[in-house]
């Protein structure tokens, strides 16, 4: 058990070592909520950004037509529909710039499939 804070979080040392060989060194000052999210990822292979509205807001502020599809590609694994909606709005506003961007030619197949089968653009 790691006990750097008043909150104890039980975890299997073996699982933590598989997740990172330098685990003990890296996470001495980690907040309990952050550590629990990491454990959920290591144990369940699940990441939830639903509680991280600040993250979605920040990412939404830096998404532009030339990088919207690339952001969709890089964040696909997080299953964050709120962020995808932001990207779709940007793509809908300026599809020619989005599809003509250099980053469009560097996306993965799954994202390309989602873009081609996504909402119709007027």
TrEMBL record:
This is BTBD3_6. Residues 1-51 form the BTB domain. InterPro entries: BTB/POZ_dom, SKP1/BTB/POZ_sf. It comes from Lepeophtheirus salmonis. PROSITE patterns: BTB.
């Amino acid at each position: 058990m790691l006990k750097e804070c008043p909150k104890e979080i039980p975890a299997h040392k073996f699982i933590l070592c598989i997740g990172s060989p330098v685990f003990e060194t890296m996470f001495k000052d980690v907040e309990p909520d952050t550590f629990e999210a990491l454990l959920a990822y290591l144990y369940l292979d699940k990441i939830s950004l639903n509680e991280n509205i600040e993250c979605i807001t920040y990412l939404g502020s830096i998404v532009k037509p030339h990088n919207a599809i690339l952001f969709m590609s890089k964040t696909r694994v997080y299953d964050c529909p709120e962020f995808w909606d932001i990207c779709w709005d940007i793509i809908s506003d300026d599809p020619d710039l989005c599809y003509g961007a250099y980053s469009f030619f560097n996306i993965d197949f799954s994202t390309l499939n989602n873009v081609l089968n996504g909402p119709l653009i007027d």
